[in-house]
Write a structure and sequence with these properties.
The protein is 37% helix and 0% strand. It has 46 residues and is an all-alpha fold.
């Protein structure tokens, strides 16, 4: 690919990347956690 070095982007590109990431986040539907099938077993202190 190329030399690995610290990536620096112009301010405009940073802003564009931030906006694109936010758009992807908001476009993705929320996946709620499903309730566990079994009962949760509480640990007993001995």
């Amino acid at each position: 690919m190329g030399d690995i070095k610290t990536e620096t982007y112009p301010e405009a590109e940073t802003e564009a990347r931030r906006e694109a990431a936010l758009q992807r986040m908001f476009a993705t539907p929320h996946k709620p956690h499903k309730a566990s099938k079994g009962k949760r077993v509480e640990s007993r202190a001995k």
